[in-house]
Amino acid sequence: MATLSLDSVKKQFGTTQVLHGIDLQVADGEMIVVVGASGCGKSTLLRIVAGLETASSGTVRIDGRDVTALEPADRDIAMVFQNYALYPHMSVFENMAYGLKIRGMKPAEIRRRVDEAAQMLEIGALLDRKPRQLSGGQRQRVAMGRAVVREPKLFLFDEPLSNLDAKLRVQMRAEIRRLQKRLGVTSLFVTHDQVEAMTLGDRLVVMHQGRAAQVASPMEVWGRPADTYVASFIGSPAMNFLAATLEPGGGAAALKAGPTIGLTDGPRAGEAGMPLTLGIRPEHIQLGEGGLDLAVDLVEPLGSETVIHGTIPGGETLTVRLPVPASGIGAVLPVILPWDAFHIFDGASGRRIDPA
Amino acid sequence: MRKKVIFKGIALPWLLLLPQLLITGVFFFWPAGQAIYGSFLREDAFGLSRQFVGFENFAEVLADPNYLASGWTTVVFSFSVAFTALSAALFLAVQADKAIRGANGYKTLLIWPYAVAPAIAAVLWLFMFHPQIGLFGRMLNGLGIGWDYRLNGDQAMLLVILAAAWKQVSYNFIFFMAGLQSIPKAVLEAAAIDGARPMRRFWTIIFPLLAPTSFFLLVVNIVYAFFDTFGIIHALTNGGPGQATTTLIYKVYVDGVQNLNFGSSAAQSVILMVIVILLTAVQFRFVERKVHY
User: Model confidence over A312-328: pLDDT tens digits?
Assistant: First the structure.
């Protein structure tokens, strides 16, 4: 149990800058999920914390101790790998005991800890098997067990669920969360899956091109995305973006598609005519007369709800998620864009603009 | 998936197989047959008469203390060559695996000795370790170590072991290299995070995971030391001094070509044939199983 702090951690491979200075403070027992598309630097960040890569500059502190230059062995961390990385020639018991044996723990204590972890993870019956005799889900549990028995200061997870099938993934996701809460170990979890990120994290780090685009709680990230990238990355289907310009006085925005939107939470600073990007989530769009006409080109029925893709006057595409079954949806749909559902971003930089 | 080609008639498939069958027949089955046939005959030294003697040649060979001594020499030689060649190759492969810059050049250079003919390799070593004209031979004598492999049997053995092992290192190196590269990086990283230092990682993770490769190479190396080192021994020591470096394969040559005892030489060949068949069988059994952990 420990805190983790990253101070302007940078990394470059040759001339390629992979991380542009990451700052992060993780509280004791907190679960931080680092999420981003592939190539955003999230795995590199995790590997730097693990000590498998060295940072080009910046410092990593675990529990206040500078570990930037230390070997992985000296950092007192445990990691769960994407492909589990179990030792193929060792039994499940030996896999879990390996790290304890290296630390010179007494066999009786090793036995006790492994048995305890195995019971917790329900792999007690598998202790004599070799990894190749296990299913994907079982291997995942063993990898977790190997991390748990060490009772480390920090858990690191490198996309541990991405090799599992969808059903198992949901199950393991909940289990990891339960386990992490129960053990109270500070954790860093890397994933590209936004649902995993939302459900697992106390806080999220949304990474984009080597930068932390936003560090906040899942609901904050969802409700007040810091820029258009975060807004489009979190939430499914993705947020709609509509071009607009600021009206004189900053109290309203004129959509390219026609209507003018009143900025209900207060006027924005900026000259009249400043380009804006207005974001609205598909689930916030309602059906109703007096709005825009959506020319429907694809209907995706999801059972109790329906996702509709189409274009609005002016040619911009719009995705709408309606809590109704798909039947009876015509070619043209009248939709209303509620004013208070809009997120206002700078049209040029993509940064969120809050009321002045 | 195996593709089955269907031929019309039987002439074409036979024609296509003919070159291989001819080579196998002329260079393998015929001499092997001759050896087996010869092992049951006794011939006078001038080749004027021969008679069938059953298993007498075998009985004689196996009762001959010289033959048994040579057998022991072969065992010592083979295991020393295999051990030396395997450990040197493993060491070099681990180093090459670590190297980032110039790794390819390094690997290429390490493969060269394999292309050197046994006799040439022997001459290289001869020029290095000859007591009078060899660089290292002179150096050793200069240091007060009485080095003369032509007189000292142990030194002769050491020299042929080194020369034979040197030639085999390249082959082993390639296999170890491939073996190392097939170990997932994440497994080694997991071990590092678990607290294992490089040496510990090597002995608890890398070495066990290379066991299948090592076993395969052990068999190949023993077969090599048994049968493919004739040229090296012939050029370096002629099996001497005395019988110090006369391995079984060299003894076949000495008894057959120099002493003109064809019956005995043939019987020895047949015994070697049985040994190589056994070794090959072990290897095939093993290769079929592939992974054993």
Answer: 988 899 999 988 876 76
Could you tell me the CATH number of the domain that includes residue A308? 2.40.50.140
pLDDT digits 0-9 by tens, B99-153:
667 777 777 787 888 888 878 888 888 888 887 787 887 788 778 787 777 778 7
User: Could you tell me if residue B45 is inside a domain?
Assistant: no
Tens digit of pLDDT for each residue in B67-91? 888 888 889 999 999 999 999 999 9
Average pLDDT over residues B12-36: 90
List the single residue in A78, A82, A86 with the smallest CB-CB distance to B193.
A78
Contacts of B204 in chain A (CB under 8 A): 98
Contacts of B59 (CB under 8 A, 6+ apart): none
| Chain B residues close to A83, C-beta within 8 Å | 184, 186
| The pLDDT of residue B293 | 47
Q: How many domains does chain A have?
A: 2
Confidence band, pLDDT 50/70/90 cuts, at residue B290: low
Taking a contact as any Cβ pair under 8 Å apart, which residues of chain A between 27 and 56 contact chain B? 50-52
CB atoms within 10 A of CB A51: 23
CA A157 to chain centre: 12
Residues 6+ apart with CB under 8 A from A66: A59, A60
Contact: A98, B191; criterion CB under 8 Å = yes
Measured between CA atoms, how close is A326 to chain B, in angstroms? Answer: 46
Residue B42 lies in a domain: no
Contacts of A79 in chain B (CB under 8 A): 189-190, 193
- Minimal C-alpha gap between A83 and chain B (Å): 8
| pTM for this model (two decimals) | 0.78
Tell me, yes or no, whether A194 lies in a domain. yes
Put simply, the answer to whether B186 touches A98 (Cβ < 8 Å) is: no
- Cβ-contact A337, A257 below 8 angstroms: no
B50 — pLDDT class (breaks 50, 70, 90): confident
Mean pLDDT of A240-264: 87
Q: Quote the crossing angle between the two packed helices A136-149 and A107-120, to the nearest 10°.
A: 130
Which chain A residue lies closest to B195 (C-alpha atoms)? A73
